[in-house]
F-box domain-containing protein
Amino acid sequence: MSVSDLPDELWARVLELGAASAALGFRDLCCLAIASRRLRRLSLHPSLWSGLISRDFPSQSQPSSSSSSSQQQQQLDPKSLYRTKFERHKLRMAEARRRAVYEAEGRVLACRRRLTELEESMCAEGDRMKATAQELDSLERVRSASVALNVWQPQVVHGRQKQLVQQCTVPVDSRFSALHMELKVCKQQISTYKNAYNKEKLKLNEYEEALSRAKYHPMQNSNHTSPPGNEPQAKRKRLK
């Protein structure tokens, strides 16, 4: 006995078991509907699509409190009702995907803004450390000149060192210690900024990967990779 000799009752039971066990989905029933007229008639049975509604949309299959919505659902056959619920589900999923993309873009922008702030802070701290080092170098020359005044030197060198010491208007020793401390603080601050910058850079890479995953859409990417008209033309050329 061939498969086509099976009675409709047995085919209907097979389809019911397949839908109940999640072996058959709505795509499978749609494929069966275009296989033959008999399978189309059997795949359109209301009990199959009612079972799919209860299985795929359990939260939406509960009776609605609104009388108008319940009357509209009663007027639709189960397949049309499934199509309506599926289209609404697609819209909700697309909206959720858009929200995920917006949130990922916000995290990327915030991370880049933070990196820019850290770069500006490191540059400012670097300029401060450079100015401190220059002032420290000047005080070091004044300090060396004040010590050298007590040693015999030619008159020209002695006069130049004396002039250098007289031009200094701040107490050398106290200012020298303060500059050393400030230079140490600048180095520590720059090291802190660098560590924060590296961590923020890693976070930016993670956020950009999450953004690319949120933007990824298999159908859209496949359409962009190969133009729709190229492959059929190549096949025609080969057939010729």
About this structure: Residues 78-148 form the longest helix (71 residues).
